[in-house]
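Memo to structure team: turn this sequence into structure tokens by end of day. - J.P.
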Amino acid sequence: MGESEKKPSYCNSWDHVRTIRKKVVANELKTWGPSIDMEKTWRMIQGYQVTITDVDGPASMLHSDYFRSDECIAKTPLEALTVYLDRGHYPPPEVLIALHHCFLMYFKFAGHYELDEMFFDAPRKQRIGNYAAQSDKDDSFLMFDYLVSLGASRANTEGFKRKSQTELAEVFLQQKQGDFDTDPESFVRHYRRWKQNRKADK
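Reply from structure team:
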């Protein structure tokens, strides 16, 4: 077993999904019940999924490899599951099996790991919160960073008066986020710290 497999979140990884996929495609996956060719069953379902009806024009075809494009779908299998379901698609069996393994491991460890650690290798961070809270903050700062860059670009090329980051933060929080409670100056301080950390991680 490799070092990466020792992490509790390994089951929610595309490497694990690809390992399972080989067994699914070869019909070598062992189940508790009667042997079922999951690949054949899913291929039948997939046949109905490749056509997308466009109300404004003719139907278009999804490339069959789309359903197994892994990292191109989402960062992790769990996040890919939401993408598949949001689009009304049945996910490949290996994705469901990998997530099933995650839950089995979670119960096996009997509370030793939180779900964030089991699925994302992301223990709760003090004053930041769990994986969902961290992701939400990242999304907000990424969007604000884009607005800062856009404002600087327009000021340089189009002669617009450049707003301060605090002014931009006030507009961003209230108009884009609907947030009237967060102090813009505090938001900017956290944004700058977030940006420094991103540079340090690269």
